[in-house]
């Protein structure tokens, strides 16, 4: 995730302990904020990765805006929120360096139990909103997520040169098209996780097979284990 983020920062990746001024667009307003690489004791925690935070003052306009958006969960802070009321921020890059787009997302808006995960993912891939019935029905729920998916997913597709991470093939190459797809390792409807660490770049065949067979992904050894016992490891892996 930090590698993806770094591409959109002037000056590239933050050094340990470094701060960088960024601008955030939230609800169509532009706010100043600071991106900080937390300065923890590296000798004490040699195995820890860098931690990046976005820092803003308690009395700032952006803090005010965030309090308004998350008023429900702040009010109910001490109680356990029901899953349908969980709230998150998604953050995605823009075409301009150092400017990031912040968007609140509410789990109740995107729970789609009647829709299977593969067709949900296919909706993410649509380049624009289309007039198909499904896209109209899902438009409200998916607009936010699709934008995010396109930024991170497109970066990963380029990283793998439009090849499938499982079979290594770019099956569209002979035809002059890119048909590679993004798969959410932990299904998006359950995890709401669209970070790079939850995305796998796969060809359409492997994508269909994964959703049809429901294999288990072993994160340590980087392979899929299918219910019939078959195991298939990743041929290409640069980001997991
Ligand atoms: Zn494949
Ligand atoms: Zn998928």
Q: Could you characterize the architecture of this molecule?
A:
With 240 residues, the protein is of the alpha+beta class. It folds into two domains: 111 residues, no CATH class; 129 residues, no CATH class. It contains eight helices and ten strands. A hairpin with a 5-residue loop joins β4 and β5. The termini are close together. The chain binds zinc ion (2 copies). The site of one zinc ion has 8 residues, from α8.
Supply database-style keywords.
about 240 residues, alpha+beta, five-stranded mixed beta sheet, three-stranded antiparallel beta sheet, globular, binds zinc ion
Short description:
The protein contains 8 helices and 10 strands.
| Total helical segments | 8
Number of strands: 10
| Number of domain units | 2
Strand content: 15-25%
Order of SSEs: HEEEHHEEHHHEHEHEEE
Mean of the pLDDT scores? 80
Helicity, in percent? 25-40%
Q: State the end-to-end CA separation.
A: 10 Å
Looking at the structure, what is the overall shape?
globular
As a whole number of angstroms, the C-alpha radius of gyration is: 20 Å
- Give the names of the bound compounds: zinc ion
* Strand adjacency order, main sheet: 3-2-1-5-4
Name the structural class: alpha+beta
């Amino acid at each position: 995730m930090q590698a993806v983020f770094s591409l959109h920062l002037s000056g590239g990746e933050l050094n340990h302990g470094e701060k960088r001024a960024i601008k955030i667009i939230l609800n169509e307003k532009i706010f100043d904020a600071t991106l900080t690489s937390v300065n923890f004791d590296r000798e004490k925690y040699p195995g820890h990765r860098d931690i990046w935070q976005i820092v803003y003052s308690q009395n700032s306009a952006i803090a005010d805006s965030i309090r308004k958006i998350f008023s429900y969960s702040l009010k109910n802070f001490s109680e356990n929120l029901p899953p349908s009321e969980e709230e998150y921020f998604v953050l995605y890059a823009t075409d301009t360096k150092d400017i990031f787009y912040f968007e609140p997302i509410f789990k109740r808006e995107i729970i789609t139990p009647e829709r299977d995960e593969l067709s949900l993912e296919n909706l993410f891939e649509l380049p624009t909103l289309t007039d198909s019935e499904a896209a109209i029905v899902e438009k409200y729920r998916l607009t936010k997520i699709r934008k995010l998916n396109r930024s991170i997913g497109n970066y990963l597709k380029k990283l793998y040169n439009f090849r499938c991470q499982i079979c290594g093939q770019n099956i569209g190459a002979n035809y002059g098209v890119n048909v590679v797809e993004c798969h959410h390792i932990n299904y998006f409807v359950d995890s709401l996780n669209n970070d790079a660490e939850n995305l796998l770049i796969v060809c359409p065949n492997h994508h269909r097979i994964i959703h049809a067979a429901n294999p288990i992904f072993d994160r340590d050894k980087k392979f899929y284990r299918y219910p019939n016992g078959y195991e298939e490891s990743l041929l290409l892996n640069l980001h997991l």
